Each structure stands twice: as structure tokens, then as C-alpha cells.
Amino acid sequence: MPGTLFVVATPIGNLGDLSPRAIELLKAVALIAAEDTRHTRTLLDKFGIATATTSLPAFAEGERASSIISKLESGSDVALVTDAGTPAISDPGEKLVAEAITAGVKVVPIPGPAAFVAALSAGGLPTTRFHFLGFLPRQQSEAKAMIDEVAQLSATLVLYESPRRLGETLKHLHQWLGPRRAVVARELTKLHEEFVRDTLDQLATRYATAEVLGEVVVLVEGRTGDTRWSEDEVKRALQKGLESGERLKSLTTDLAKRSGWSSGDLYRIGLTLKD
Ligand code: SAM
């Protein structure tokens, strides 16, 4: 009989969030596959867990997965953990889980913390429907393409971001999505936990220069009936696009997707600005 692969969530800050079931399981398995074994060893030591570890770093998940699958096939139970939160959520795990399933290995989740769930649950934006984007691509054109894809959704958008890029990302989100409510959820479950709830442009201004410490999740309200841009906002966006050399036709097509204005109306306003 092959062993079982347990996908175990670990704390995103507060060690009290490691569940009794997770502790019991981590003690019982033959091997723990960890994103970073040194980081995980600190957690294991705190809970008196002496189980052997093997590394499953994000950059080599494919290569390492096969030796973990062999271990499972030989009958050993293996637990998968990452540095924080739920494995396979913007973390290693997706490939290992898929390969384990292909190999006929049973995969069992041991649920627990995930930063995006914590942010959504207390953020105050609608949670009935949400769209998780993870980290935006570093390349600006790719990031914009990803946001364009979801600009029409009424679901709340959820993003992970590094504190260094927060200000820049909020500025772009405002440019690409227009005026919307948003939340920056920082240092969840930790001493300096903070929720800042405002509009995208206000948040972009706030984080443009301020040094941001710790980890952040960004929530952006989905498209609502009243997210139609004001005429001033439309004029400003058109003016900016024209000044940066964009063609009016493509500019209006692009703005129509996120401003709530028809491309015909935008084109007419654009012509008056050109004059
Ligand atoms: N697997 C993790 C999960 O379940 O949330 C996510 C791992 S991903 C590599 C790390 C990102 O998650 C951070 O850059 C940040 O966006 C978010 N994150 C993790 N811990 C957080 C915390 N305590 N507060 C706010 N965001 C956090």
C-alpha cells in the first residue's frame, strides 16, 4: 500500500495557529517535505517534533517531487509544509500534489491558516465571490494584461504583494481599475496586524513613499454598478494617455473596459481634448 501525502497548513505569523491535528500528524509521518528545511526546523523544534525533513524548494519542485513520490510509493507517509500558510497557495506543492495523484497516492489536506482567507474574512469587502490572483507578474505589461482580464468581474480581487512594491502596485491598480474600495491587510496574526481600508487612489498616495514593513495582502472591490468614473476622471485618464503618445482609438477601447463609459462617448471627449 502506498503511503499518504498530507498537505499541512502552518502559521502565517502566530504560532498558536498550528492546529493540534497538524502537530500530531507532523510527529507521526515518516518524512516532512519542507519549502525551507531550516525555517521549518525552527517551527518543529518549538513543538517538540523530531521528524526527519527533506527540502522541496519552489525552484526545484519538479526535480525533488519524484524522490518524494518514491518514498510514498514505498509505503511511507509524508507531510508537505511551506514556510507559512497553506502549501500550494502561491507556494510549492501544486506539482507534488498533482504527481502524487497521478501515481495513485492518497492526498489529504490538514487545513489551517492562509493569508488570503484571513484578509478576506476580516477585510470588510464582499466575500460571496472572490478571485485570487496571487502575485502579479513583475513585468508591467503582463501585470496589466492579468488585471484587464478580471477588470469586469464583480468578485472581490485578492492579491499578494511584497511590501517594497506595494505603493507602485496600488498606483497601477488605480490606473487600470479606476476608483474602487480596497483594503491593505498587513502582518496578519502578528503583533502589528493592521487593516487599512480606503479607496485605491488614497491607498496609492498613502503607500507611495511610506516604508512598508512586513507582509501584505491587497483586496480590491469587484466592479459594481456605481464604479462608473466621473467625467473628470475620464478626462484625466484620456489626457494622460494622449500625452504619453497613445492613439485615441486604442485608448478609448482600453478605457471603455474599466471606466463604465462607452467607447463612443470616450472617443468624443478625447477629440475635444485633442482640439
Ligand atoms: N502559502 C501562503 C498562504 O497560504 O497564504 C502564502 C505564501 S506567499 C509565498 C507569501 C505571501 O503571502 C506574502 O508575500 C503576503 O502577500 C502573504 N502573507 C503571508 N503571510 C502574511 C501575513 N501574516 N500577513 C499578510 N500577508 C501575508
What does this entry look like structurally?
The chain has a 5-stranded parallel sheet, sandwiched between helices. The protein has 275 residues and is α/β, with parallel strands linked by helices. Helix 9 packs antiparallel against helix 10, helix 9 crosses helix 11 and helix 10 packs across helix 11. The protein is elongated, with a radius of gyration of 23 Å. It has 3 domains: 110 residues, Cobalt-precorrin-4 Transmethylase, domain 1; 105 residues, Methyltransferase, Cobalt-precorrin-4 Transmethylase, Domain 2; 44 residues. Helix 6 links the parallel strand 6 and strand 7. It is built from 11 helices and 10 strands. S-adenosylmethionine (SAM) binds next to helix 5, strand 7, strand 8 and strand 10.
CATH class category label of the largest domain: Alpha Beta
Helix content: 40-55%
Distance between the termini: 77 Å
CATH architecture of the largest domain: 3-Layer(aba) Sandwich
Summarize the structure.
The chain has helices at 20-28, 37-46, 61-73, 94-102, 115-123, 140-150, 166-177, 200-209, 231-243, 248-259, 263-274; strands at residues 4-8, 31-34, 52-55, 78-81, 106-110, 130-135, 156-161, 181-186, 194-199, 216-220. By secondary structure, it is α/β, with parallel strands linked by helices.
Secondary structure blueprint with pairings:
Elements: E1 4-8, H1 20-28, E2 31-34, H2 37-46, E3 52-55, H3 61-73, E4 78-81, H4 94-102, E5 106-110, H5 115-123, E6 130-135, H6 140-150, E7 156-161, H7 166-177, E8 181-186, E9 194-199, H8 200-209, E10 216-220, H9 231-243, H10 248-259, H11 263-274
Parallel strand pairs: 1-4, 1-5, 2-3, 2-4, 6-7
Antiparallel strand pairs: 7-10, 8-9, 8-10
Helix pairs in contact: 3-4, 7-8, 9-10, 9-11, 10-11
Bound molecules: S-adenosylmethionine.
